[in-house]
Amino acid sequence: MIVDREMNQGSAMAEQKLSYEDVKASRAKSLGAGVHQADPDKVSRETTLSEIDALGLNANLAELESIGYTTVKAAISPDLVTRAREAIVRAMERKTGAAVDIENESGEVFNGISLAHYLLFEDEVFEDIALAPEPLALINYLLGRSSKLSSMTCHFKGPGGACLPLHSDNGNGIPAPFSMTSQVANVNYALTPYSEEAGALGMVPGSHRLCRQPRTDEIMLGGDHGNPNAVAMDLEPGDAVVWHGNTWHGSFERTVPGIRMNLATYFARHYVVTQERFGEYVPPEFIERHANNPLMLRLLGQEQGYGWDASGPDWAKFAKAPRGQFD
């Protein structure tokens, strides 16, 4: 029986670097096992489905498959919501030099969407949210147990501006037709109440099966020219929407005072280039905090074998490379 890699492989940073000869010997031993060797992808699929069942997410999984997204209610605690909101306000005030008034912003200072990016290293609260078990179980289903964090940002939305047009997260040149095997996936945490007038996230049910970006006549939200199939996501702080990378989504214009805040936690398959540079640089104190947490190190791309320098590949990472859709 193959045991889940994240429980037993230990710190990725502390492992001894294998030689190519070591890897060849290990592979020969595995091949010698023949039909008696468990299928790693099958084991990973069964592990993920067991986790989803144990967390009570089977209905969410069915919804994710059928319409391309699902809402996990109270995915993070009120304490995490409050701490995340406070950390984002500090980041925005430092970035802009302007005071933030979450309840009463008129659009004069923060008009439409401002982006607070690279949040993971802003405060330890974001580390806790990255590991929230229910959304992460669904991400493991969509992207495999080798997936990694691509970015963690806040779409900090004041009144006015315009809607964020509908789009699929399959960016960076991914051509249509898109694969039905999700290449990227998103977890969008509401940190303030969501409604259409408050600038809510908008989703198009079933759009993941179209396997393409929306046309220009399909991208608008709200008003006379809005996509009639789009649904405004009414959410409470702490709720999370998880969606397949193909699914069309955007956000409505905010038409009431105040700030709408989210935490967009964007994930990618093992081989996809990340939006933020987690695999290239992680603060030493962060690595030290998570030295015994292989799950966090995996999410930060510390198991990615590509990107070697003159010293050559780290073959230990290739030995752990995923072997299928769910691995």
Describe this structure in words.
It is a single chain. The protein is α+β, with helices and mostly antiparallel strands and 327 residues long. The chain contains ten helices and ten strands. The strands form two sheets. Strands 1-8-5-10-3-2 form a six-stranded antiparallel beta sheet. It has a four-stranded antiparallel beta sheet with strand order 4-9-6-7, with no helix packed on it. Helix 3 (40-54) runs antiparallel to helix 7 and helix 5 (78-96) crosses helix 6 (124-130).
**Helix and strand sequence:** HHHHEHEHHEEEEEEEEHHH
Helix fraction bin: 25-40%
Number of strands: 10
Average per-residue pLDDT, rounded, comes to 91
CATH class category: Mainly Beta
**Number of helical elements:** 10
Named at the architecture level, the CATH assignment is Sandwich
Tell me the strand order in the biggest sheet: 1-8-5-10-3-2
Low-confidence stretches: 1-15
Question: Concise description?
Answer:
The chain has 327 residues and is an alpha+beta fold. 30% of the residues lie in helices and 15% in strands. It has ten helices and ten strands.
